[in-house]
Fold these 2 entries.
Entry 1:
Amino acid sequence: MQLAKRLEKIPPYLFAELDRKRDELVAKGVDIINMGVGDPDQPTPSHIVEAMHQAIDDPSTHNYPPYQGTISYRQAAAEWMERRFKVKGLDPNTEIVSSIGSKEAIHNTFLAFVEPGDYTLISDPGYPVYRTSTIFAGGEPYTMPLLAKNGFLPDLDAIPEEVAQKAKLFWINYPNNPTGGIATLEDFEKMVNFCKKYQILLCHDHAYSEMAYDGYKPPSVLEVPGAKDIAIEFHSLSKSYNMTGWRVGFVAGNPIGIKGLGQVKTNVDSGVFKAIQRAAMAGFQTTEAQLQAVMTVYGRRRNILVEGLKSLGWPIDVPKATLYVWAPVPPGYTSTEFVTFLLEKCGILVPPGNGYGAAGEGFFRMALTVPEEKMYQAIERMKEIGLRYQ
Ligand SMILES: *Cc1c(COP(=O)(O)O)cnc(C)c1O
């Protein structure tokens, strides 16, 4: 048997590698503090679980769902976009499609728009799927470095003219995984204008739209006037409502973008379980108090971790959003050397920054997905071996 050549071009999925390393050490009896993958450890809020109980008892949820999502789900998503972002008038029939979490929709968007030889503009560091799905589609990833000095935003002037002209998709993600960077409406407006100039579909991965702290509310790219002419936005309930296992989200925006994605999806999947769509609709009704109950837990962990790292000399800012702290490795280490050191000397598992792209070299990412006492323990272990940023 022979695997397809395209698989040779795909690097091992970052987190699959980390899981393997963790299992190896756990088998040796090492007590690992796993701050690797951004998978919430808290339960899904009870109003959503309750809606699921009711939905699954209703036999009308048991057969195949409509490919694009039930009309009530798409309407609920459109209403949520209006309530949350003041994005009015999204047509549930042509401008919204359900997704089995964002990952599949991201991948399928590449299949819908990228042909062999086309460029995709992807952020570096960035969610690994942007790169691998470009390769699956036969395209060429062109990476846009996200640098601290630019506020982790892409430098549009640095994109060569000939690349822009051959690019089909422009991928951004704010609040950003892994850097924690955020974008303002003015930042989005510049990207919308750039994409309009070159007729590139602007794809905003908004996985962390609700995961912000201290009163900050991340905007939608669709709030930029005219953005719907060129942009689609990927929403997921995974991170915001501790629902990574449920696999549900939606994509909203430009009708050609939605149509292309929908056409691929109709041929490769059969939609989201209707009971889960109903539970997600309860998710759209989450009150500010219920959301804050989730975010307060992450906010406290963030503070413990940032304070702890600062006490060891780390030069870092408090992230305004996401589930992550993005921190520089101490001078003298590469990313890979430092995360190996942390794992072997402290039993702390974190991904190296370069796992998210070459521009992530010199950084590591810590996920806020372990309880407070483990956070304290992680800092304590670093202190005990005399580790400092210097
Ligand atoms: C977690 C994540 C996703 C995927 O989430 P789903 O569970 O597939 O909805 C997409 N993009 C980014 C940036 C993420 O961090």
Note: The domain at 5-43+289-384 is CATH 3.90.1150.10 (Aspartate Aminotransferase, domain 1).
Entry 2:
Amino acid sequence: MKWILIFAFGCSLTETTSAWTYHYSKVPMNWTKAREWCQINYTDMVVLQNQKENDYLISILPVRRQSPYYWIGITKNKLNETWTWVGNNSTWIGEDSWAANEPNNNHSTEFCVEIYVNKAANRGKWNDEKCANKKYPVCYKTQCKASTCERGKCQETIENTTCSCEPGFQGQRCEKAVGCPALSHPKNGQLSCSEGSHIINTSCRFTCDPGFLLIGSSAVTCEVTAEWSDLGPTCASYIEALSAVLGFCVLSTFCGICFCWMKHRKRKKVAQTRPTGDKAA
Ligand SMILES: *[C@@H]1O[C@H](CO)[C@@H](O)[C@H](O)[C@H]1NC(C)=O
Ligand SMILES: *[C@@H]1O[C@H](CO)[C@@H](O)[C@H](O)[C@H]1NC(C)=O
Ligand SMILES: *[C@@H]1O[C@H](CO)[C@@H](O)[C@H](O)[C@H]1NC(C)=O
Ligand SMILES: *[C@@H]1O[C@H](CO)[C@@H](O)[C@H](O)[C@H]1NC(C)=O
Ligand SMILES: *[C@@H]1O[C@H](CO)[C@@H](O)[C@H](O)[C@H]1NC(C)=O
Ligand SMILES: *[C@@H]1O[C@H](CO)[C@@H](O)[C@H](O)[C@H]1NC(C)=O
């Protein structure tokens, strides 16, 4: 049924399959019906996001000499509402998208928009129209699939789709996790990491083999900056640790002794000089 409909009424303007494709019907319909037709057969009524897309669209649609022209997917429900694109609620309107003296709301209920695809001066410009009027639907079919971008948002542009990646991911399909440098287990210790080994948000815990003492922090996290939150720890044997501690004690004791001895000598010197002075006096 679907294919018969497309064959009978529709026309595809497929040129590439890597980006969204535009399609139109050869049968004029009111706006509501036109949108329905787009949603049944393709993705939705066409959404234009910039002047380039507007220009591209009119370059591929067949020229019409007079009304009816084509419906585009921008509309509003009430007089004081802003014009809004179907699909993603964007409100983009180019600086001179409207034809001269439009939108004029001539019938006070002109809440749908047609695009002139003709050879006159207003070619490619928009005009507000009554939604009940019959015009040719223009639709788009999205090429973005759930799998197009692994960890990002798929965006369609003329003849291309691009993925804008979540923080921590890169690559054409956001398939590559930005990672921290690989970690290795400390000498005489173990390393265990959550999910992945060094991608963003991974946290790793360190433990030391029995008989070894962990010096430093026992856990690190791979941060969004692709750097580890901390340098890994070292595992020192208790003997090493003990001798380090002992060494420190010995050193400080020795220093203490030295200090005392020097102080003592100084005091002695002072004591020796004082009586001489006394004698002179
Ligand atoms: C657009 O706005 C309508 C009404 O506010 C809402 O129901 C709909 O989910 C929105 N669509 C998107 C794609 O944001
Ligand atoms: C609508 O989608 C296009 C791309 O898909 C994007 O460039 C634009 O910013 C979107 N608009 C809004 C309001 O989300
Ligand atoms: C308003 O609509 C009437 C017919 O419905 C038409 O004759 C007239 O030209 C329109 N005015 C403008 C400014 O489009
Ligand atoms: C649009 O057309 C359909 C079918 O052709 C009809 O049922 C519907 O009432 C029409 N809507 C408007 C607003 O004219
Ligand atoms: C599509 O976009 C990507 C990223 O912006 C770019 O590298 C690629 O060359 C584009 N392909 C085409 C056919 O324009
Ligand atoms: C990292 O965790 C934060 C918060 O839990 C989350 O928002 C973000 O998407 C995660 N990043 C990656 C690359 O997984």
Note: Helices lie at 2-9, 31-41, 51-60, 238-280.
